[in-house]
Amino acid sequence: MANLVTSLCCVVLAAVVVAYAQRRSQLVARNQYERMGSDVTMQCGSLDNDASVSWKVNGTDVKAQHRLEGPRLILTQVNLGHNGLYSCFQNPHGERRDTIILHIGIPPREPTVTCRSNTYPKGFYCSWHQLYSTYIPTTFEVDVQHNQRSLEVQKDSVHKNRCHVRFPEVFSSFPYKVNVTAVNALGKASTTITFEESTIVKPDPPERVTATPIRFNPRRLEVSWHSPATWPDIDNFPLKYFLRYRPLIRDQWQHVELSDSTSHTITDAYAGKEYIIQVAAKDTEIGTWSDWSVAVHATPWIEDPLPIASTTEDSSTLLTETKTSPIPSSNAPQKAEPPVGRAAKLLTFFSPLLLGMLLLLM
Ligand SMILES: *[C@@H]1O[C@H](CO)[C@@H](O)[C@H](O)[C@H]1NC(C)=O
Ligand SMILES: *[C@@H]1O[C@H](CO)[C@@H](O)[C@H](O)[C@H]1NC(C)=O
């Protein structure tokens, strides 16, 4: 008895749910995806062929070129301008029978795929992108094969079009095969790349590069840096470094290749010139050079420049004499300069005042 009541209850409930769902389906908008340039048919609910309906888009009449065939609206050669919320109403009472969100787009094309290991020997990552927009949501499926088995693929938490794969073994001679498939409502397209472990190893650039002048050494710069933090095992997989530097005023770089040291002293800098310095890293055995690090600027040590301002004229000249030149006579013309300069500065400072006073007098 209880069982019968329960099942009756269920039947009634199911009927209510179905009726509700039917009613809702007439009110809740559904998506329709169509290819750009095609002719599009929208069907008003499940109305019969002889039903008469009228259509609205975004709440107004359909202005784009179209045909009406019973419960169907046919748009020709659709483009993005046809996107919109379409509703149909059954004549003669005008009850709404269906709501369709029309999305115009294009099927995906083969994505561009690149893979790289900046965490050798832990793993590698692959990224992909589409050269053309599809205008509609497109997702990607990634399949990685190695030695006839599928490897686990982990989505990147930050980069949308990136995934990570662990190397199942190091120094493997089997190639890796990565297949990325772009999928949307209008179609799919895949790209497959095949590579060997060693060809994708590329560390990140060295970090925290600094260049500092060395006291009393007008031609030296001490450059130091840290290995990239992403490189997981610097002891067993050491990196070597490549340093390049040039004075800002020149185009040509000078290069130094270093084993696993993380500092270098430039000894042939031009005195007084500002330098630009960058470092790159490479696995000592395999792989390719990293990109260049962030550029740092530094100027070798220069003797303290002339003091510009001082309290008295006497001390200023005194300082000038002792610092710049051991020959006092050559200094003679300079002696007169600072006071003149100061007088000129005073004049410019007071000139608006003077002008004002002059104006008042007139
Ligand atoms: C309908 O509205 C959407 C959103 O405002 C707009 O992008 C679209 O072009 C409109 N469609 C038509 C056919 O006016
Ligand atoms: C790539 O993956 C897609 C989807 O799983 C599949 O249809 C296609 O055949 C695969 N391509 C290759 C070359 O394995």
UniProtKB/TrEMBL annotation:
Q: Which example biological process does GO assign this protein?
A: positive regulation of cell population proliferation
- GO molecular function of the protein, one example? interleukin-11 binding
Give the keywords, sorted: Cell membrane, Disulfide bond, Glycoprotein, GPI-anchor, Immunoglobulin domain, Lipoprotein, Membrane, Receptor, Repeat, Signal
Instruction: Tell me the compartments it is located in.
Output: Cell membrane
The record's InterPro entries line, in alphabetical order, gives: FN3_dom, FN3_IL27B_N, FN3_sf, Hematopoietin_rcpt_L_F3_CS, Ig-like_dom, Ig-like_dom_sf, Ig-like_fold, Ig_sub
Q: Pfam family example for this protein?
A: fn3
Main localization of the protein described in the UniProt heading: membrane
Q: Which domain of life is it from?
A: Eukaryota
Q: Where is the Fibronectin type-III domain?
A: 107-204, 205-305
Ranges annotated as biased composition (Low complexity): 314-325
Where is the stretch described as Disordered?
314-337
Q: Which family does it belong to?
A: Belongs to the type I cytokine receptor family. Type 3 subfamily.
From the Swiss-Prot or TrEMBL record, give the protein name. Answer: Ciliary neurotrophic factor receptor subunit alpha
Tell me what organism the protein belongs to.
Answer: Lates calcarifer (Barramundi)
Organism lineage reads as: Eukaryota, Metazoa, Chordata, Craniata, Vertebrata
